[in-house]
Amino acid sequence: MSPLIAAVVTREILWNVPSWARALMYLLFLAALAVCVLGIVRKVRAWRKGRESGVSVSAAKALGRLWRDAILQARIWRSGAAGLSHALVFWGFVVLFIGTCIVALEDYGGWLLGREHLFFTGNFYLGVSFALEVFGIFFLVGLVLALARRKAGGGFRPLNRRIDIALLWLFLVIGLSGFVTEGLRIAAAGGGMEEHPYERWSFVGWGLAVCLRGVEPALLELCHLAVWLLHMVLSMSFIALIPYCKLRHIFFAPLNIALREDRKAGRYEGVSLEEVEETGRYGVATKADFTRRQLLSFDACTECARCQTVCPATTTGKPLSPMKVVLDIAGAEASADSLHGEEISPDVLWACTSCGACVEECPVYIDQLGAIVDLRRHLVAEGEIRGSAQGALRSVGAAGNPWGMPREERASWSEGLDVPTIEEEPSPEVLFWIGCAGSYDRRSRKVTEAMVRILKAAGVRFAILGKSECCTGDPARRMGDEFTYTELAGTNIETLSAASFERILTTCPHCFNAIANEYPDLGGDYEVVHHSEFIEELISTGRLELDEVAPIRGTLHDPCYLARQNDVVEAPRSALRSAGLEVVEPEQSGKEGFCCGAGGGRMWMEEDTGERINSERWRQLQETEPETVAVGCPFCMTMMTDARDSVDSPVEVKDIAELVAERLPASPS
Amino acid sequence: MKLLVTLKRTPQRDARIRIAEGGDSLDLDNIQFEVNPFDELAVEEALRIRETLGEAEVVVVTVGGEESQQQLVSAMAMGADRAVRIDGGGTLDSLQIARALAAVAAREEPDLVLSGKLAVDDECGQVPAMLAGLLGWPQANQASSIELSADGASVTVVCEVDAGLETLRLDLPALVTADLRLNEPRYASLPGIMKAKKKPVEVLAIEELCDPGATRSRVTGFRALQEKPPGAILGSVDELAEVLVEKKLI
Fold first, then answer.
1. For the segment B20-52, what is each residue's pLDDT rounded down to a tens digit?
2. Do B16 and A273 count as a contact with CB atoms less than 8 A apart?
3. Scanning A262, A421, A651, B213, which has its CA 20 to 30 A from the CA of A81?
4. Whole-prediction pTM value?
5. Which of B34, B188, B195 sits opposite A383 (nearest CB)?
């Protein structure tokens, strides 16, 4: 051994590793690297078969996203223990990887430049050694935590398959063998521990070495080589394994986080009808029908199962799991004739309520909903939409509303209520968009009427479109029928653009979402406000005065298309408090709310598998022991009322507008 | 194999029809139209037969003005290969329509003619029977299942009759009318709609085809049903009994 070692504060790299073992290391490394690169290349090739994606992302934006969602793990932290465990493993892994790079640089750099040491000496050496100990412990603690969570078991997550456990053990053994190698080296290298007391900075290794005092040096060296070999072989296997299992997210998740498209989950990617006419293709049948960016995103899946844990379909026993859809697509051969079949069946695709909980939850920003809609479009292209759902689509196209009610009766609700049409009130402050439910559905008409009373009480100049209003096309679009959606949206944009008004007011979050987020893509730019926001605005600006009453206990069921898709969370609560409701939050609320089960066209489909979604939501809401369940959406109204009636509960289900209208001061007459 | 499907343009099934002032016609101004739902079942069945055979031609035919072009396109959007429109006004009666269709059938020489069991507007249900009669072909009505024999020379049809089901075997060529339970029609797909616009529609004047003969039945007037008085929801059985006694119903 070189006598200099003790003089310079550093360590000998690859101490006690004979040349045959070094040769083995390099051979294995090259092999592992080749296997890894091959796997990545195959994936990238598969992506390139996809369609060209649109807009690119600026470097600054990409870096910002990486900082927030990769380095800081912002989204992963949202689920407590799992977030902690992943962050510990991730940060541990990153620092250990940097440590390995430093060692490699020192070794090859020194060799290239013909110098014995480059920079891995003195305080730098001690600092790095110390950091590696700390982050090595992070790494191990994170892994133990992850194993413990799997041991404890749970509903849908964490996944507890053999591969999940095996990978954790692989990392655990790599980490532990690293520490043991270090301990053995400190105990045996360079004439023993007394010769290099500064190795105390490697406190874990030092501690192990202390325990090994008095053991034969020859035996220590033999053990060191054996454990080093284990550490090295397992590390190389890990490198080779990355692209072939969920570990591939190490590469692809940051890539997807950086390159993802910035689009609200409620704003669907449009389809060019000219392109459909030209190619005769519509929706996604094969892998190549997805965009390259989508294909990349599917390979970014970490199999964390968060999406299916929050999915109202999965949790109530429907055949759909958003994660499984993503993995089925990712796992399909690029050459396969069709993605559709037993795994991705119509039942799976039609089970989606388009609530967007999966998209909101995914830590690596996969758009499961977008993929499901693309696949649904193919079903529609094949005419594979039957029964009541097909009936609703036909009615939307023919009668302008999904129930097939006569167009002439669209404004019948307003008879005798003295509600001006846009012809009678040509430049109103708000154009009150009634929506199909608000126009025809008996229960929802009461909400419309309540809103009219509020508008009148606040002295708002408003008007309705009357018979010329028609369905926004939302149900058609969610069900994958772009043709009907485009026609309806086009008609409405024509009507709206011919009218003059300041803002559009709507009581339906689905209408709100379509007009506010999707019509701009077709040239219809309007300011849209949901009635909960508008009421809140009327109250806070003093235009609307309400009677003071003793508060009653209530809860709010957040509409997905309001809270999650459009970030309207506080306004409805504030309006409800003004109306004398003590708002008790259910466990899942706001942007993390649980769907009523009616979105995505589910309103018009039978629900004959598993638990009913609305009943499950009703059960959740009842945990708050409310006297009143407040809703802000006609679909939620139907679903919650049905769920309530199915258990004969005395709890009221009322819309925000109704609860507010009840508090209007009695008219002076 | 060639399949000929007859279809009619009828008001959208949920539309509320009003009688025009004067009572001699219907006010169809703001009404949407569609393919008669029973005819749509016939189109779907023809497409399914084509799918089972792998190869067959599905031709749709209607008697009507320019406006019924849309319904032919709808059928072609579902998958029919081409269409024939016999240009004719609304005053033709069932027999005249059947004669025109028979002339088309004679030209096209289909192996099977499929029709809806009736049209949902006037519910006459006469044309298919007259058509089969004029052609001298066997017919089976209100089919809930149609099965082609292996040699392609006959069809086995299950018909829904009042007392139950009747199974008939017809030698081809033949005519079969579709009932509600025959199938569930597919949704006209987007690429289907695009393709349909390019599919051929042959327009023929009725006089070119045949002598339709004189109109022997015509509509002379319409009268709406008297509106029923609204029902009432009562609170209890006792209340119901009281009302029934009061109205001298018990």
1. 988 888 888 878 899 999 999 999 999 999 999
2. no
3. A262
4. 0.89
5. B188
Closest partner residue to B14 (CB to CB) among A383, A405, A481 is: A405
pLDDT computed for residue A666 by the predictor: 81
Model pLDDT for residues A293-317, shown as the tens digit of each residue: 999 999 999 999 999 999 999 999 9
Nearest to A373 by CA among A298, A507, A271, A450: A271
Q: Spell out the domains of chain B, with CATH numbers in brackets.
A: 2-246 (3.40.50.620)
Chain B residue set in contact with A, beta carbons under 8 Å: 12-16, 30, 32, 34, 78-79, 184, 186-195
Share of chain A above pLDDT 70, in %: 98
CB A365 within 8 A of CB A57: no
Which domains are assigned to chain A? 259-381 (1.10.1060.10), 402-538 (3.40.50), 547-661 (3.40.50)
Cβ within 8 Å of B, A 463-522: 481-483
Q: Give B-chain residues touching A479 at CB under 8 angstroms.
A: none
For chain B, helix, strand, coil in percent to 5 are 30, 30, 40
Q: What is the pLDDT of residues B119-168, one digit of tens each?
A: 999 899 999 999 999 999 999 999 999 999 999 999 999 999 998 999 99
**A350-389 residues touching B, CB cutoff 8 A:** 377, 380-387
Nearest neighbour of B193 by CB, restricted to A387, A398, A483: A483
DSSP, residue by residue, A65-86: HIIIIIIS-TTGGGSHHHHHHH
Please tell me if residue A406 touches chain B, with a CB cutoff of 8 Å. yes
Answer for the pair A23, A17: CB distance below 8 angstroms, yes or no: no
B66: left (phi over 0), alpha (psi -120 to 50) or beta: alpha
